[in-house]
């Protein structure tokens, strides 16, 4: 039996950060991983998916500017795109990440972890105890809807879609969220014929114009959009093709089918039943990431369902690692809103980028969400294409920007930008929302001309001088 101050289960980006910050705080930490150190983001999500998208994004950007357009004489090199993707995943070799763990002074335990008692974790038969805490950082997995024949058809999830070695000739995508929209963009541009079916439209959690602009772009790319439809049955034929019957009665035949309809927590085989917690459920935590009803178990990242995004998970991890160390060593806690030991932003200011063409960048509340929360909302819209910096970037620029203002407080509570490379605008909006910068003070943050950031001046001018 080996004893640590903290045992972290899951060595993805979030788990690595919990372990790192707790180690910096003075604790002896073990990090447990059953697959690859670096986790979903490094090998099957953020990094490979964005690598699949980036080459075509750059090519489209060049083709949209006169002078550069005429210099583009070739087409996208699909194999080169896949090779570049492989470089970002280190060919699914986690040696360098394991070296980082060792260099940070963290013990890496490889194997499947089971919580076998309070502060007790068994890894492939070897028992380890934690003096102070255990952190479950096991992430989430793809949700497979209960559609007749779907499981038997061996559908792709995001894992297969981001690690594919050969682009299929045709692909059916079920879902309308971020993964579905991004993979529809990537695969259509990589040469597949893509059909996307979504019961609730595209990017339904965003401002309505975001989904509309992305839908228009997907159609222009050639994606067959079947919105307000869902699969009723799926069949993998004897020839290896997939027949998907939709709720409108049509049948779509493709080489592969990708399911992107949501996520489930990876808690079903964690051993939670051994400590009185229902396995298979999301872990319910307080703002310090401590699981309700315990004083030793923390749930960090996707597994707590607060914000299923790598950057938010890493944000949580920093708070969790520091608060675990502070509690263990009897140091002062800062658990007030926006304190060092809480994850306040998960509830107020979550930034997110959807890397479609065009990009969708948002933070905070949509106008609808703010209204439902009782905020005195004023919506400020502006055409991004009307900004000088946008026209310089592209001869065919299309985009839209929106601020959601709390009229009672005179601060921004949400912002959404849709257009090429709008991800570069997002952090300024995130700072404005998190810091609750007053509208009248924002007037003095002067954007450089001619850049797309001039949208801030145009939005504030539309809102009105204080």
Structural features, described:
By secondary structure, this protein is an alpha/beta fold. It has 3 domains: 2-38 and 94-141 and 264-345, FAD/NAD(P)-binding domain; 151-261, FAD/NAD(P)-binding domain; 358-463, FAD/NAD-linked reductase, C-terminal dimerisation domain (Enolase-like, domain 1). The chain has helices at 13-24, 39-43, 46-63, 78-88, 95-103, 158-163, 178-189, 208-221, 310-328, 345-348, 367-372, 388-393, 423-435, 439-442, 455-463; strands at 2-9, 29-33, 107-110, 113-117, 120-123, 126-136, 140-142, 170-174, 193-198, 224-227, 231-236, 242-246, 251-254, 256-259, 263-265, 297-299, 351-354, 359-364, 377-382, 400-406, 411-419. The strands form 5 sheets. Strands 1, 2, 3, 4, 5, 6 and 16 form a 7-stranded mixed beta sheet that branches. Strands 17-18-21-20-19 form a 5-stranded antiparallel beta sheet, sandwiched between helices. A hairpin with a 4-residue loop joins β17 (351-354) and β18. The longest helix is centred in the C-terminal third of the chain and has 19 residues, at 310-328. Residues 350-456 form the Pyridine nucleotide-disulphide oxidoreductase dimerisation domain.
Give the CA-based shape: globular
Q: What is the CATH architecture annotation of the largest domain?
A: 3-Layer(bba) Sandwich
The level 1 CATH classification of the largest domain is: Alpha Beta
| CATH structural fold name of the largest domain | FAD/NAD(P)-binding domain
Could you tell me the strand content as a percent range?
A: 15-25%
Main β-sheet description: 7 strands, mixed
């Amino acid at each position: 039996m080996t004893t640590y101050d903290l045992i972290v289960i899951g060595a993805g980006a979030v788990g690595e950060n919990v372990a790192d910050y707790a180690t910096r705080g003075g604790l002896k930490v073990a990090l447990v991983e059953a697959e690859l150190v670096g986790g979903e983001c490094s090998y099957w999500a953020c990094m490979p998916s964005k690598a699949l998208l980036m080459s075509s994004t750059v090519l489209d950007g060049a083709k949209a500017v006169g002078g550069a357009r005429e210099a583009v004489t070739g087409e996208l090199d699909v194999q080169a795109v896949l090779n570049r993707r492989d470089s970002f995943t280190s060919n699914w070799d986690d040696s360098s990440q394991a070296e980082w763990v060792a260099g940070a002074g963290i013990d890496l335990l490889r194997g499947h972890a089971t919580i076998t008692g309070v502060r007790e974790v068994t890894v492939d038969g070897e028992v380890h105890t934690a003096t102070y805490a255990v952190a479950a950082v096991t992430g989430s997995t793809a949700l497979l809807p209960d559609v007749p024949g779907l499981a038997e058809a061996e559908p792709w999830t995001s894992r297969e879609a981001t690690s594919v070695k050969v682009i299929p000739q045709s692909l059916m995508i079920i879902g309308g969220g971020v993964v579905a929209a991004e993979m529809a963009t990537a695969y259509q541009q990589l040469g597949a014929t893509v059909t996307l079916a979504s019961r609730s439209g595209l990017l339904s959690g965003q401002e309505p114009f975001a989904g509309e602009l992305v839908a228009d772009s997907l159609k222009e790319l050639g994606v067959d959009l079947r919105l307000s439809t869902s699969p009723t049955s799926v069949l993998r034929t004897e020839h290896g093709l997939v027949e998907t019957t939709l709720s409108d009665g049509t049948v779509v035949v493709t080489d592969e089918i990708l399911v992107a309809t949501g996520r489930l927590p990876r808690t079903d085989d964690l051993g939670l039943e051994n400590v009185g917690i229902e396995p298979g459920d999301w872990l319910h935590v307080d703002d310090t990431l401590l699981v309700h009803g315990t004083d030793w178990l923390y749930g960090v990242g996707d597994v707590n369902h607060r914000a299923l995004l790598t950057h938010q998970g890493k944000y949580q991890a920093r708070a969790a690692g520091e608060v675990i160390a502070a509690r263990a060593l009897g140091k002062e806690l800062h658990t007030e809103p926006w304190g060092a030991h809480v994850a306040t932003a998960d509830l107020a200011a979550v930034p997110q980028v959807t890397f479609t063409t065009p990009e969708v960048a948002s933070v905070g509340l949509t106008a609808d969400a703010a209204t439902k929360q009782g905020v005195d909302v004023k919506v400020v819209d502006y055409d991004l294409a009307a900004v000088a910096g946008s026209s310089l970037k592209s001869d065919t620029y299309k985009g839209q920007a929106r601020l959601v203002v709390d009229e009672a407080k005179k601060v921004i509570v949400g912002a959404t930008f849709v257009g090429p490379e709008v991800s570069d605008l997002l952090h300024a909006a995130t700072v404005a929302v998190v810091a609750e910068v007053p509208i009248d003070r924002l007037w003095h943050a002067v954007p450089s001309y001619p850049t797309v950031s001039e949208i801030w001046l145009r939005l504030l001018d539309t809102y009105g001088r204080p």
